[in-house]
Amino acid sequence: MTNELTPKFNPTEVEAGRYEKWLEADVFKPSGNPDAEPYSIVIPPPNVTGKLHLGHAWDTTLQDIIIRQKRMQGFDTLWLPGMDHAGIATQAKVAARLAEDGILPQDLGREKFLDKVWEWKDEYATTIKEQWGKMGISVDYSRERFTLDEGLSQAVRKVFVQLYNKGWIYRGEKLINWDPKAMTALSDIEVIHKEIDGAFYHITYQIEGSDEFVEIATTRPETFLGDTAVIVNEKDERYKHLVGKNVILPIINRVIPILTDDHADMEKGTGVVKITPAHDPNDFEVAMRHDLPMINMMNNDGTINENGGKYEGLDRFEARKQIVADLKELGQLVDIKPVRHEVGHSERTGVVVEPRLSTQWFVKMDELAKNAIANQTTEDAVEFYPPRFNDTFMQWMENVHDWVISRQLWWGHQIPAWYNEAGEMYVGEEAPEGEGWTQDEDVLDTWFSSALWPFSTMGWPDENSADFKRYFPTSTLVTGYDIIFFWVSRMIFQSLEFTGKSPFHNVLIHGLIRDEEGRKMSKSLGNGIDPMDVIEKYGADALRWFLSNGSAPGQDVRFSYDKMDAAWNFINKIWNVSRYILMNAEDVSADAVSSALTKVANKTAGNVTDRWILTRLNDTARRVTEQMDKFEFGVAGHILYNFIWDEFANWYLELTKEVMFGEDEAEKDITRAVLLHVLDQVLRLLHPIMPFFTEEIFEKLPNTSGSIVVAEYPKVRPEFNDDKASEGVAMLIELITAVRNIRAEVNTPLSKAVPMLIKSEHADFLNAVSPYISRFTNPSELTIAKDLAVPEQAMSAVITGAELYLPLAGLLNIEEEIARLEKELAKWQKELDLVNKKLGNERFVANAKAEVVQKEKDKLADYQEKFDTVKARIAELKEN
């Protein structure tokens, strides 16, 4: 049989070669339909430093879900892929690889070193694209970009020059964060503050010309080599007599003044503060107020420089040990008090960051920030999902500092500034004419180019670029909350400045993936999970299902192999359902399906279960689409799971066996058609989340052609809605479930026939579906009537619209039955209390939609009826 599926779902077999087929068919490219609404996404570019991690797998999965659904809905979709050069991280990785062969970057020189980095980029970009393929992401590779492409580099130069000409980029000497390992400046958000064990070192400084000393406390005693003053508060009576005098720095014997400044807190420590302007941000501000000299006492690599006297050449931490020992020997180390405190570490290299005075390039942020803040009050505001992250964005923009954008690296966009021997500086998009000009050695922060990503990838600065005009602003960005400051904020203010528009309409924020114990994944803990390993075991579809269903927007998720097992089991369930349907409906034509569905909709053929499942399919398609539009993929997945597993597989499929094992061929044809249609629609609803196996099954359906990637997404078909059928089958399912529960309570297997009585106002309907009742409950006698005598010795259950009685003579213990019913009565009382509380809330009744309020009122009536019936039955049993 050509459309036969293997008995067991094998993700390796299903996914092998599928991605290449999609690429060959060009199904991921925009439709080019001018009448279709455009929908565009630019992929958060992974850096070319290695393999994809689970966080990036999460990004790409959610974006792929969005773009696949929009493509199926008829949008002209563009998902543009690309990668980030990641200056610091990539240069460090390449330098480490060279070091294995005993080669330093300086041995090669800038150009040859960059050749090595480009080789690295080509190697790892290939790896990343292979991993994208395993994830199944539907990007348009014909538009792939890299942050060091010439087109993007042109955009970077243009932005730099325009901001410089406006006075918003400037070069100056400021205190910055310095990474001694990478030997480069860092922006504030590239510094991670970690709590570590340290100490307060209490040191005495002698007053010049006196035997008197003042005591200071510092966590970084080595920085005294760069002290240029000590300060006290002018209101501090303890030290008024010392103001204007000098202290002598121990060991190096340099004389520095005692000044007054409000930065000195009388209530904190000794009230005397050492000022090291070149190595502390607060001290830098004090120095600016008092015009103090600024002494840099550290080399680029974190060793002490020539200003350190006998400590010159020592690593900063080794110098600390030596200085502490020398101070102790001099008797000027008073105390060492352990302290647990936060210390800045490089986000890229992990080493302790040094505040350090340095000449760097900066972006002046005040106007850019004001524009971004003001834009969030306009129609062009970026919508954050969840909305609370708008507050995160706004708070950062309101408190942002000038952005240090120069990096002392070779890998990156070299700053477009040139200098000559006359001391002149030229800034331009191209090199200046004439001889004697040397380009600035530094490169720009990686985030400077990444901030332009949404529009530079579309052809900007050519605003007549076809892609820029059609697909910018982009529709949705998906990213983790950890890079709102790094990337999202910068894209917004740069896009507003250079295009006059927000870069995207929506930002969907997800959390972090943690291990099963809730810990952040890290190399130090050894708890990282390679998504490729997960795919090898479970397949990409299972991983994508887990990633899309793991949590709500903005929330962290714990990785769990149990959940991966559950995802695989779900796929295997659908696989087996599909095998059953294909084996029974392989020859049903498209015309036969269409004709059968029309007859079911018109109620000229088919049965109530057919009309029920089509109604439930409508409801599922509507609710899933609503939740997907709100980026609530977890809710959408839950709705899909319940429909597929419970209603379609566990109930409808089983109910159809009454027809499929019967003699009526015409009715079988209807059922086969409905089964095929529902399966087809289920595969389409699932495809954005789980693309591989849905395509595998879709192409085996008898009436499909082409790829499911471009198949139409399910829509609600009003002609299939049948509320009576929906309510009737719901009652049928509730009834069957109740019988099974009663049998289980008295250990009566389904194989043993027992008498059954059903009292219901819907007796006509229940008699019509009695073959289903008989098949699934096995009654020895079945009595269904609107009114009947209630047997004394019977187990009972109350369901919506009916009362069920099973006379089980000899098996029923009256006291136990009363106890069971009293528990049931308590359950309905609890439900009544909840609904009454909600309906008693005036704000709920006044503000909720009318249909929501009515739904609660309907619940109240249903629960009250069940409560009253159970209560009456208890009374009857007690009387007897």
UniProtKB/TrEMBL annotation:
Question: Where would I find the Valyl-tRNA synthetase tRNA-binding arm domain in this sequence?
Answer: 813-878
Pfam families with a match to the protein in the record: Anticodon_1, tRNA-synt_1, Val_tRNA-synt_C
The residues covered by the Aminoacyl-tRNA synthetase class Ia domain are: 18-430, 436-560
Its Enzyme Commission number(s) read 6.1.1.9
> What is the name of the protein in this document?
Valine--tRNA ligase
Name the GO terms of the biological process aspect. valyl-tRNA aminoacylation
Asked if the keyword Ligase belongs to this entry, the reply reads yes
> InterPro entries this protein is in?
aa-tRNA-synth_I_CS, aa-tRNA-synth_Ia, Anticodon_Ia_Val, M/V/L/I-tRNA-synth_anticd-bd, Rossmann-like_a/b/a_fold, tRNA-bd_arm, tRNAsynth_Ia_anticodon-bd, Val-tRNA_synth_C_sf
Q: Which residues form the Methionyl/Valyl/Leucyl/Isoleucyl-tRNA synthetase anticodon-binding domain?
A: 610-754
* Family label: Belongs to the class-I aminoacyl-tRNA synthetase family. ValS type 1 subfamily.
Where in the cell does this protein reside? Cytoplasm
The gene it comes from is: valS
